[in-house]
Amino acid sequence: MKITSAEFVLSAFDEGQWPRGGLPEVAFLGRSNVGKSSLINSLLGVKGLARTSGTPGRTQALNFFLLNKRFYFVDLPGYGYARVPREVRESWGQLVTSYLAKREPLVLSIHIVDSRHEPTSLDLQLREWLLAEGRPFLTVATKSDKLSQNELRRNLARARQVLRVVGDGSGGEVVAYSAVTRRGREDVWRAVEEAVTASQKSPS
């Protein structure tokens, strides 16, 4: 997909701030410091559009980016960062859960894990929740350039095992991705394009 325009629209701290109009939305979610912002910037080929930080837990809202005036990327708060105050973690959880459960324009969720580390119980819980809710999603393993081919192959196999990936098409494969080499970029864009196009062909 060719991106002709990409703009930050707003940071939504509650449901009333979510954009109206019904344009398709693709959400990015994963643990804090898993590389969400780097993934988004890499996909768009734009440096710094999505904010990156060396301090996990900085994203506290749903950040909406309008692409080609056609659909949104939505950067969701990271989860699982212990140093964030408990009440803040809980409010993030409520915001994200509400969005994932209620948001009708959401056509695809990109579930991000770190290829260098085994997925956590929170990663598995998220995957199982998406499956239970019938939400289409793709699992992307970032930072693959930091591993040798053998290490990456081994880690991806372990990730599939931990996440109970069965290859039945329901969230199916784990895609290796690198924001540095752009490995996996075409695979992610293909999934995004298919989801956005299918939603725009559906009867309203």
CATH architecture: 3-Layer(aba) Sandwich
Cα-atom radius of gyration = 16 Å
Proportion of residues in β-strands:
15-25%
Mass-distribution shape: globular
- Mean pLDDT comes to 85
Account of the 3D structure:
Helices cover 34% and strands 21% of the residues. The chain is α/β, with parallel strands linked by helices. A 7-stranded mixed β-sheet has the order 1-3-4-2-5-6-7, with helices on both faces. Strand 6, helix 4 (149-162) and strand 7 (174-176) form a beta-alpha-beta unit. The longest helix is centred in the middle third of the chain and has 17 residues, at 86-102.
Describe this structure in a few short sentences.
The protein is of the alpha/beta class and 204 residues long. The protein is 34% helix and 21% strand.
Task: Give a quick set of tags describing it.
204 residues, alpha/beta, single chain, Rossmann fold, globular
What are the SSEs and their pairings?
Elements: E1 6-12, E2 25-30, H1 36-44, E3 62-67, E4 71-75, H2 86-102, E5 106-114, H3 121-133, E6 137-142, H4 149-162, E7 174-176, H5 185-201
